[in-house]
Specification:
The structure is a homodimer. By secondary structure, chain A is an alpha/beta fold. Chain A has 17 helices and 30 strands. The interface between A and B is large, with 44 and 43 residues.
Chain lengths: ~650, ~650
């Protein structure tokens, strides 16, 4: 695809974008503010820009006069870039361009790291937990009338050096017909043991003929809110299809605690179990359709979820998880037939479920640790999984400490007046005119705003803080001359969008209690890291690398996250987004059997911190209840940037 | 109980019986003939005897005149012995008492051997495959919030030296509630591995409080015709209850071949599987009721059956069993959850299924070999299990050979004109007046005859042969002067009971084709033994011991069985009846885990002979198609007895 260069005046900012990029998003990415209230739907008409050079498509509506159009005026939110451009952004007064350039850093999201299949292959670790072997057995005669299974096992021993074999009853049930269907030429599916030495290989399936080139796995992240499944070709290691689906349990409670409470009702556990299995089956159906494979050729499924999701999946009553001293029923789960759980896969398929560490550091986090590879590197890594719950792991190949943070759901929009999930109509990007304090709202789907998603919230609060609209303690500057900052029923708020510019016929606002909630959430995460680091005698500056996991992480503007003190101040290049760590780990388990042995060691190695029971945690937490932190010395670069801004404004 | 001595005149025979014994049965047991057609119901009035001394109860009916009664005449079939007696049997002519004494040997059945629990205990082998351990676990705190399962396992490791533990999902599901029900005082049920070294012990159940004194097992013989179950107390080793029940599959075919054919129909396999499970569940319900135990305290079930019954039980299609080269799907079966098979026992109960040797030497025979202990003694043992099918095992602790005989169902009354199962109305004992050829029929239940059961058939044929009524080839002596031997539609027969003396308003007869069928059946068994012995270079005379298994065996008159050549001529004291060998083996497995390791070795050691494919078998078979055999030198004692009889008669 072509790329185009855009130069914004009077800002001295440039950016290179793909052909067809949206102009207002390009501006925001370049750190250029353009007033825009309607989220990008084109109804407020505020985002007028003048195309001084080059060509855009669209951007013309009844909001513009003939003369406007002739002069090159376009609505940035509706214009797409078709060539190199010079764009002039009208500013409402003559302001120093230094202000313009300081007011926003270019948006920077984390580098995305995916699983390295080639590395696995190079290291000889691409050994899936299920393998198919094709056999041509001698046909029985009166002189050689071994039982069918014995015939199969003899050939595996003799010709393939397979030993310590055990057989599933389902295989015994199938084998007479399968052998006789294709002249005793069969493919046996072998499930490898966790322990290479002393473990038993299980014959889980037999099929007529040679099916060795059709062998698939399902990897699944069982999230509190959303489930994601992947269909993986075990011949190549490649994911053929992926699908996400809300967890059907949402109707019974948004978070794990309310699910646990529901599970305590009569038949509640059965219901929640059944509902999550239905969600899993929907995903399996979808990824089978999309990849166009024969479902009978799926040999294994690996699932990862937090401890509550795992217990509900396995129909284990989770009630002791939510009560001190927070004891899960188990953290290691035996392999179980997928069909026994109600999962719509063949009788031969064992469901492997990721082990957990504790009640609040579950298999999803362990899967992330495995998938990211942090457990086998030297670098001191901080792993943060921010979802409906937030968990932290710190460590490297020598030690690992983990904790769940009572961060609350602010990062997913929970507890925020106009908070919402990252779906259509959520303000996900934001800028502000430092002079007029008029906003630039960009919503998901470029529609009029409905609310604010988690990554949007971080950007809004950080931006307002950088310009002094809110202070260190998260309070609005009461002296600013704008209608957008006001007090409603005693609560101070900033109006992001007036009601006629929204989908909901109400002013969309950010309130001081919202900011408090965000500060508490980021404070919990940050102080969790601090507490664990102190416990092992390290400082936050020693962190070599940050892995962000969870859907949230891919949209977070890293500089803004540092600005509010959600992330420690490190080189943003060291922040890596691994996406869905749980799914990544589940996939990894499908590709390399080695990890199944390692994972038990890793869970044993992971020291769990019950932060609420750790005395220093409260001190760290209180210190983190500021923007970015009580102690700005932890954020030297931010400090100097804020100082510079202060002098300019 | 009191015993009484009876002296029979003019026979010079005595017998000691229990107080209350039936007089006609006492006579027959002593080898004394008394005419009797009606089976012992008292309607034919033929069995008149004179009580010369002593006291009987009953034996008086309208068949006797006042004078008869005053003279001490009684109907033997209705009289019970109440003191020492001198009894005179009227004989229709003056015959030499030597004839009387030669005409019948006293009935002798095999010594019964039961399992020796004390020996097991003495040898330290009373180690059931499931064990309960009571634990008082430390209660969790914030400082010690191990998962419930980890807490349990730690205690088992630390305080009971249990290692290599694995856990069932069902235990994880139960443990949170169970631990908290009784202050973390629990009983864990452990299932032991087959291999003592390297095997994994499985935690299959947890229960609140101390339940170690309540631990039970079910042992079950899954027969083609009948199922027998025992409920065993694993604390003491004692069977608390036993119950038998027809196999519900009988409606779908009498023998294994017809069951296999039914299983080939659409849904046939599912149906037969379901029906046998229903029969099993009925038995379990009954033995639970009878023993008054809590069904949740049953920890294990062991089942033994022939290969077809086992495959139907496990829902494995048996169709290749009935077709050459007679290949079963498997002969070793993995442990499987009883509940998965539909067996109405707790989720934690594993069903252990006895392994087989081949398509026609199944787990029932292996169980018999294990239960009888023949696999661990020096003596050369011949094991015969005679049921709907007949199987032979020959060998000792060093070697074992086995075969199934196509004996047909004659021993169970099959293929015999008036053949029937050993139920009420079946002639089970018989004698004949050597002079008049009038019969003495004794039926099961002392009612008028309906037919002939297997053991009765052997006695009838042997008795007729001894007296020359039928010859070496099984043909009636056409020259005898009696209405009872006649030709009907070209077939020669002996009338056992005239129709007015029967329940069925038809003459009950024994035909030459019936005798042929019996000869073929016993010939198949005998020649099977011969063929196997020849293959290992031994003679029938080398046999030290015969074990008879199967319900049939307990009633067989051993001398008569030798007379027809069913058994080789050995000291009858060496013949031991072990009853239901399959059930005995299943019980043994419930009591000693050691046997589960041994059994796999034993099945590997058992050399299977496909007799129909062994050339010498046909020669041996043809030679055995005589009474007792072509070569009377195999039966020296019988030969001299027959010679003596010939001279006398």
């Amino acid at each position: 695809m072509n790329t185009h260069k855009i130069q914004f005046h009077p800002y001295q900012k440039k950016i290179t974008v793909q052909d067809g990029a949206n102009l207002i998003r390009a501006a925001l990415e370049a750190g250029v503010h353009i007033n825009a209230s309607c989220g990008g739907e084109g109804v407020c008409g505020k985002c007028r820009v003048i195309i001084e050079k080059g060509k855009v498509a669209g951007g013309i509506s009844e909001k513009l006069s003939r003369q406007d159009i002739d002069e090159g005026v376009r609505q940035a939110c509706k214009a797409t870039v078709k060539s190199d451009l010079v764009v002039r952004v009208p500013v409402e007064s003559d302001i120093d361009s230094s202000i313009l350039n300081l007011q926003s850093t270019p948006r920077k999201t984390a580098r995305i790291q995916e699983m390295n299949l080639d590395e696995l292959k190079e290291k000889g670790l691409f050994v899936p937990p299920v393998e198919k072997i094709y056999l041509e057995l001698p046909q029985p005669s009166v002189q050689d009338n071994l039982p069918d299974i014995t015939r199969l096992i003899s050939s595996l021993k003799l010709n393939h050096d397979e030993h310590r074999l055990v057989v599933d009853l389902s295989v015994i049930r199938k084998i007479p017909e399968v052998l006789r269907k294709n002249a005793f030429k069969v493919t046996a599916t072998l499930a490898r043991p966790v322990r290479e030495v002393g473990g038993q290989t299980r014959i889980i399936n037999v099929q007529p003929g040679d099916t060795t080139d059709r062998n698939y796995a399902v990897a699944m992240d069982v999230g509190t809110t959303t489930l994601y499944g992947q269909l993986i070709d075990l011949k190549t290691g490649i994911a053929l299809a992926q699908y996400g689906q809300f967890n059907g349990q949402i109707s019974y409670g948004e978070d794990v605690i309310s699910r646990i409470i529901y599970a305590e009702k009569p038949n509640g556990l059965e219901k929640l179990h059944q509902v999550v299995i239905e969600s899993i089956n929907k995903i399996i159906k979808k990824i089978i359709q999309r990849s166009k494979i024969d479902p009978d050729e799926i040999s294994t499924i690996t699932l990862a979820g937090n401890t509550t999701m795992t217990q509900l999946l396995l129909k284990i009553n989770p009630n002791s998880i939510r009560r001190s001293p927070y004891v899960p029923a188990a953290t290691l789960y035996p392999p179980i037939k997928a069909s026994e759980l109600g999962i719509a896969l063949g009788d031969h398929v064992a469901a492997l479920v990721y082990p957990a560490v504790s009640s609040y550091v579950g298999g999803d986090i362990v899967a992330g640790v495995m998938g990211s590879g942090m457990y086998r590197t030297e670098e001191l890594t901080l792993f943060m999984d921010i979802g409906t719950n937030a968990e932290i792991v710190i460590g490297n190949k020598d030690w690992l400490a983990c904790a769940a943070c009572s961060a609350g759901p602010a990062f997913e929009g929970g507890g925020i007046t106009f908070g919402m999930r990252a779906t259509k109509g959520a303000i996900e990007d934001f800028s502000i005119d430092p002079h007029t304090l008029e906003p630039m709202n960009i919503t998901i789907g470029n529609v009029t705003p409905k609310g604010i998603c988690g990554s949007g919230l971080i950007i809004i609060v950080a931006t307002l803080f950088e310009l002094g609209v809110i202070n260190h303690a998260g309070k609005f500057n009461r002296d600013l001359n704008t209608q957008r900052i006001r007090q409603t029923e005693g609560i101070w708020e900033y109006v992001l969008a007036w009601k006629n510019e929204t989908q909901i016929q109400r002013d969309v606002v950010l309130t001081e209690p919202d900011i408090d909630n965000l500060i508490r959430a980021k404070g919990a995460l940050y102080s969790g890291c601090m507490t664990m680091l102190e416990a092992v005698g390290l400082r936050i500056q020693d962190v070599d690398r940050i892995f962000l996991a969870g859907g949230f992480g891919s949209y977070v503007d890293l500089e803004k996250a540092i600005t509010i003190g959600l992330l420690p101040e490190i080189d943003t290049d060291k922040v890596v987004f691994i996406g869905n760590g749980s799914l990544m780990g589940a996939k990894m388990s499908s590709l390399t059997n080695r990890i199944r042995k390692d994972v038990v060691e890793v869970t044993k190695k992971m020291t769990n911190f019950e932060l609420s029971e750790t005395p220093s945690y409260m001190d760290n937490y209180v210190a983190a209840l500021f923007l970015p932190h009580t102690d700005l010395e932890h954020f030297p670069k931010l400090k100097s940037r804020l100082d510079a801004l202060k002098h300019t404004v």
